[in-house]
Amino acid sequence: MSGQTHLRFLLVHEHRPGRQRADAWPLDSCPVCGYQSRHSTEWPPPETLWKTCTSCGHRERYATIAVKAGSRTRRSAR
């Protein structure tokens, strides 16, 4: 299997509509140390980006999955 890379995914969640930054969570843990770290990235995210594990420093490329924030309007209870 030399030459093949394992594709990892990063879930990028928009905080509020109109904001420039978003939280990014990997869907699995670091293949080196097993840590799952939260990152911050720009919104909207690019299709792929490089992130570094905050525990061991392992750097890897991720494919992003963008999740838009829902409406923040207040709903009345019935």
Labels describing this entry:
78 residues; mainly beta; 0% helix; 40% strand
Outline the fold blueprint:
Blueprint: E1 8-14, E2 21-26, E3 39-42, E4 48-52, E5 59-67
How would you describe the overall organization of this protein?
There is one protein chain. By secondary structure, this protein is mainly β. The protein is built from no helices and 5 strands. The protein has a 5-stranded mixed sheet, with no helix packed on it. Strand 4 and strand 5 form a beta hairpin. The protein is elongated, with a radius of gyration of 15 Å. The mean pLDDT is 86.
Task: Describe the structure in brief.
The chain is mainly beta and about 80 residues long. Helices cover about 0% and strands about 40% of the residues.
Q: What percentage of amino acids are in beta strands? A: 35-45%
Radius of gyration: 15 Å
Major sheet: order of its strands?
A: 3-2-1-5-4
Based on DSSP secondary structure assignment, what is the total number of beta strands?
5
**Which percent bin holds the helix content?**
under 10%
Structural class: mainly beta
Shape: elongated
Q: Quick one: biggest sheet? A: 5 strands, mixed
SSE topology string = EEEEE
Uncertain ranges:
none
